[in-house]
Amino acid sequence: MPAWDKALGVGLALLLSQAGPGSAQTSDLVSQNAFRVCADPANYPVSDDQERGYENRIAELFAEALDRELQYEWYPMATGFIRNTLAANRCDVVIGYAQGHEMVQNTNHYFTSVYTLVVPQESELSEVEALTDEALKGARIGVVAGSPPATHMARNGLIGDAKSYSLMVDRRYESPVVDILDDLEAGEIDAAVMWGPIAGPLVKADYPDLTVIPLLNEAASPRLFFRITMGVRRGEDVWKRELNSQIRRNQDRINEILEEAGVPLVNDMGTEMLAAETGQ
Fold first, then answer.
1. pTM (2 decimals)?
2. Which domains does the chain have, with CATH numbers?
3. Which residues form the Solute-binding protein family 3/N-terminal domain (predicted)?
């Protein structure tokens, strides 16, 4: 991952040298004494209200670094998530949000990941590395409806035999990502195309007979890799700069959390895997 802007670091150091603890550097926050996180209570392995997800661990890391009490505002990450949490001033940061999304102001990205193909380890599809591979013709592939890979599948003639799963659900009551993997393990589908930061950790924890293949060779649009940031309210530039500083200082520890969870980390252009342990 590229080095962060040195000028930002110098400017922030000057700001902190002239401010008391928890004052100017977070002056635009609703809360001045807590690290208030907007999170889904049932989105394991990302986050849950038992605090088992990798975003929970990153939140703990940042609360400790900022010397603030960690507090959560739980809301399902479906329609209305930002409106009812961050925009309603009930919390001050979303730990994981795709870069460029208009509903939030993004920090610098702290990891990049990619959609993946998940297949049984012993399957003849285990050597497939791209959705253009002829070996996928006629295979029944599970895919979340409306996700970017669905466009690639349609272009490559794979959508006719596909099995579609819901995109926007309340995972307290439905879990399409688990349903996909259960169906794959049961042989009801031949393969699945899933977002790597969900597929990787779930397979690592609960599906030892499956393998996760990052889709690094998809040149056509839409892109299948995304840079993940933290999301804050628009206008809260001081808070964003503080989080950027903490991301830079704690990048190695963030990488360790993600790698331990099983998140596939790729370079900023989504073309190759990053080396384990270093994140470089």
1. 0.86
2. 6-111+225-261 (3.40.190.10), 113-214 (3.40.190.10)
3. 34-261
